[in-house]
Specification:
The protein is an alpha/beta fold. It has helices at about 30-35, 40-55, 70-80, 95-105, 105-125, 130-150, 160-165, 170-190, 195-205, 205-220, 235, 260-270, 285-300; strands spanning about 5, 20-25, 60-65, 85-90, 245-250, 270-275. It folds into two domains: about 5-95 and about 225-300, Alpha/Beta hydrolase fold, catalytic domain (Rossmann fold), CATH 3.40.50.1820; about 100-225, Rossmann fold (3-Layer(aba) Sandwich).
């Protein structure tokens, strides 16, 4: 029987399908709680996944991962293609420099904020008054400006590197302030419609904000410990092209833009089924995303 394995280090959507044995796990959970950065690289995590498979006595399994989990799912499957029977991915992140610059650096990040404004005004048009929409967009602009304000203007050329220096500062006041600004920015564009709880995590749960920002920035400042374009190179994709893959992608995903999923589809070929969710952003908790993931898991249940 195939095993559905969730390898996202961030979140697990609620999937309950009787014919799957669920092997759901958070990679390096203790490190995620403490923001430990030692022995915490993409390839350490790939080794952890394989070690878990061996310890559980699983011959082959389906791999499920969203956002950073999609990166890790691809890295694992390209390293151990003989152990993977199917891939279910969500919110594709290929860990390319261009993707990081889009969301965090310079004009790309400001473009993400601008598009989030356009998309959300359209989505909320019939849901609230103009004055309410205007107020929320002002709040989002403040989030973006707050994200930039932590870094001096002269150091904004590489926001990831500059944030990393603050996040690893020995002064906890400095590191926590940077962690909360980083987390607030990403949370503010994670869903098509605003989500107060995601924003609140950054404000009322400093431990969560510190771990989230520190580990994420640790990977990004190190280019996720891979050459740029590694996962989507022909050499790597050729190893997994035979594995059936379903990708669930929010059409209004501003953290992992739909273009990246399309690039993966073009490289992968016909064995990858790319499904856009027309009313969703990035988060796996978006209703359309949850339905799409459940349907994908159901389709692969007989493999």
């Amino acid at each position: 029987m195939a095993v559905l394995a969730q390898i996202s280090i961030v979140e697990i959507p609620s999937i309950s399908i009787p014919r799957f044995i669920g092997s759901f796990f958070f990679l390096k959970e203790e490190l995620r709680r403490t923001a430990e950065l030692r022995e915490n690289t993409t390839w350490d995590l790939v080794a952890d996944i394989e070690r878990l498979r061996v310890n559980l006595g699983i011959e082959q399994w389906h791999i499920f991962g969203g956002s950073w989990g999609s990166t890790l799912a691809l890295a694992y499957s390209e390293t151990h293609p003989d152990r993977c029977t199917a891939l279910i991915l969500r919110g594709i992140f290929l860990a390319q420099r261009s993707e990081l610059e889009w969301i965090y650096c310079g004009a790309g990040a400001r473009g993400a904020w601008l598009l989030s404004t356009v998309f959300r005004i359209n989505a909320e048009y019939f849901l609230e008054s103009f004055s309410q929409k205007n107020e929320k967009e002002v709040i989002r602009a403040q989030r973006r400006e707050a994200f930039e304000a932590v870094i001096s203007p002269s150091d904004r050329g590489d926001m990831i590197k500059s944030y990393y220096e603050l996040l690893t500062d020995a002064d906890e006041t400095i590191s926590l302030g940077a962690a909360q600004a980083w987390s607030r920015w990403e949370s503010s564009i994670a869903k098509l419609l605003p989500n107060a709880q995601m924003r609140a995590n950054s404000d009322v749960n400093p431990r969560w904000a510190r771990a989230f920002a520190s580990i994420e920035c640790h990977y990004f400042v190190n280019q996720t410990f891979m050459p740029d374009g590694h996962l989507i190179s022909e050499e790597q994709i050729a190893k997994i092209r035979h594995i059936p893959c379903i990708v669930i992608q929010g059409r209004y995903d501003l953290i992992c833009p739909p273009r990246t999923a399309w690039d993966l589809k073009k490289a992968y070929g016909d064995n990858l089924d790319l499904r856009y969710i027309s009313d969703a952003g990035h988060s796996s908790s978006e209703p359309g995303i949850r339905v799409g993931l459940t349907e994908a898991a159901d389709e692969f249940g007989s493999l």
